[in-house]
């Protein structure tokens, strides 16, 4: 029977236990608050936080590195960093005035070199401060298998002071969706560092609206596949090739529209993919491919038709001794002008077929880069890169799309060479000096060259 004695015992136990329970609850509450408390910490020089942010950031020498500082909770379930670069460039062109051309400016774009050089405009001096980027990266469940990353990047284009969105994507468990650098690009092998913001003419590059998946690494191997919104650089569909007997000898089809490239919506995505083997960060090899389907209207037979484009690329790095790194990238394909730096924007990837009037052909093209970096010490670095881009079977269409001044779009090949040295004054400030040489060849008016010497004062935060 419950009596006063039992009640007294319960009261005694309660007086002992309640403070203990209260203390434990207060301790758990303090621990939870401490876990979710935000900290301002170093990011780039801390291996844990650096790896969290590095995991899903864009890769390559042209990208913003992991910023110096970040905000995070104690358990890294939330982390935020803001980084950027401000990079004024001072330079001098001689033998031509590429800086003044549309598509040129501080981007040493060999496809914009005037041919022939304009008399009285064969040199140019410039100071350009419109070369800056800022990015934001938010991470949830940092360091875990469920880490999710949101990344967005804004920047100027070297021409005007308006901000443009360059990247905006979300990554989770190997999947990435949004606006990003194409999966077809190998950012690590593309090129050594250059002052030139654009880089080599034969480099595979480009931004795509894309969904992709990169697999986990297994014994050095991993692979990736994606789908991307297609964009095509094609001719107007007018015929400028040689005449054919079956159509008469009066050139009645010359300049006539025999195909309509804009008749249909492009509803088949591009398909990029790659397989890579890596022994270490700069000892690696990758084989990449891309498949494309271009839909158009045959105006001769009034039919819907498809033209297929494809590309294959070999890329990688070799690091025989610690300070020395080699870069290699070679790509060949048909109809992949969107993905090769110098050919991007030229209406030459798809043109009417010479063999079958009314059909369109994906034209053959290639790009190659060879580069080297030597790290003299922690502060000094020297680099060199040579590159070439070339397209075939498009002579009449390139000539027809050329403009009188500079013969733009009359493109046959481009050659690019850069040699530079960089000195890191601090981890925030880097200066560089660079020499550039470029040549653009055309189909009917010869070639033109440009030389450039430029320097940078780049702040990275």
Structure overview:
The protein is mainly beta and about 450 residues long. It has helices at about 5-35, 45-55, 395-400, and strands spanning about 40, 70-75, 80-85, 90-95, 125-130, 130-140, 150-155, 165-170, 175-180, 205-215, 220-230, 260, 270-280, 285-300, 305-320, 325-335, 350, 360, 365-375, 380-390, 415-425, 430-440, 445-460. The strands form two sheets. It has a 16-stranded antiparallel β-barrel with strand order 3-6-7-8-9-10-11-13-14-15-16-19-20-21-22-23. The longest helix is centred in the N-terminal third of the chain and has 33 residues, at about 5-35.
What is the compact description of this entry?
The chain has 3 helices and 23 strands.
Question: What would the keywords be for this entry?
Answer:
mainly beta, 461 residues, 10% helix, 16-stranded antiparallel barrel, 23 strands
The share of residues in extended strands comes to 35-45%
The total of helices stands at 3
Largest sheet: spatial strand order: 3-6-7-8-9-10-11-13-14-15-16-19-20-21-22-23
The count of β-strands is 23
Query: Which regions contain 5 or more consecutive residues with pLDDT less than 50?
Result: 7-25
